[in-house]
Task: inverse folding
């Protein structure tokens, strides 16, 4: 899948690993549309080839408008879903039972938002002319090792990311007739601005739990893996862990 002179959509693209991911296809000549909330876009660093589009991934009309904008500068070939939230809450906490609205909000943003973008982007990609291999596009979703190794306080987050893992194969099979591939990356602990608020000691402790390399993952490594998936025509319906062989302890 060639990226030059095509369009790409990256959700959550104004910060964190998604920001690095948006820059990667832009560096290969793609016109990238980074979808994010207005507050995140206000603080985003400008990147050549990246256009920020204020979009709530859970809103069908906003997403449809955003992917149509990308397709209008297309053809739209690639989508990387990175948008997500991860508040922590125990099922039985000091303030009582896990708030149901919080649980639903996490699942709505992470899982429903991912499906919303996947489906509406696929609608646009399916209208493009296929390449010589019959391929029209690639969609890469973001799960987490929390889908497999959920810790205390991660019931909502792990549920949402487990849903993305479960979505991968049926989505790939469903969209195969349109020449669209679907894969998922399940990253471990990534060095993002979210970790900037924790102490160096705590960050070092997280890194020490990774067998090798004994450090936190870098956003650029996620971006490189996303590009590798896009480039590898036979990768489809697969979830790839990117975690340095880390298996998270229960707490």
Result:
């Amino acid at each position: 899948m060639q990226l030059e002179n095509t369009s790409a959509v990256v959700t959550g693209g104004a910060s964190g690993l998604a920001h690095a991911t948006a820059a990667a296809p832009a560096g290969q000549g793609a016109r990238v549309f980074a979808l994010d909330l207005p507050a995140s876009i206000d603080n985003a660093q400008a990147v050549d080839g990246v256009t920020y589009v204020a979009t709530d991934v859970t809103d069908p009309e906003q997403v449809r408008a955003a992917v149509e904008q990308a397709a209008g500068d297309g053809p739209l070939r690639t989508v990387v879903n990175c948008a997500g939230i991860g508040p922590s809450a125990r099922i039985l906490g000091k303030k009582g039972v896990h708030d149901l609205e919080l649980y639903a909000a996490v699942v709505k943003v992470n899982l429903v938002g991912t499906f919303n973008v996947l489906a509406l982007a696929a609608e646009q990609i399916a209208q493009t002319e296929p390449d010589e291999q019959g391929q029209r596009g690639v969609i890469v979703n973001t799960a987490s090792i929390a889908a497999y190794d959920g810790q205390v306080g991660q019931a909502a987050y792990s549920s949402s990311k487990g849903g993305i893992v479960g979505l991968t194969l049926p989505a790939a099979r469903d969209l195969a007739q349109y020449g669209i591939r679907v894969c998922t990356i399940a990253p471990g602990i990534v060095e993002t601005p979210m970790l900037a608020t924790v102490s160096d000691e705590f960050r070092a402790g997280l890194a020490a739990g990774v067998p090798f390399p004994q450090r936190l993952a870098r956003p650029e490594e996620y971006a490189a893996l996303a590009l590798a998936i896009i480039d590898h025509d036979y990768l489809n319906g697969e979830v790839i862990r990117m975690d340095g062989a880390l298996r998270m302890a229960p707490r």
Q: What stands out?
A: The CA atoms of residues 159 and 166 lie 10 Å apart.
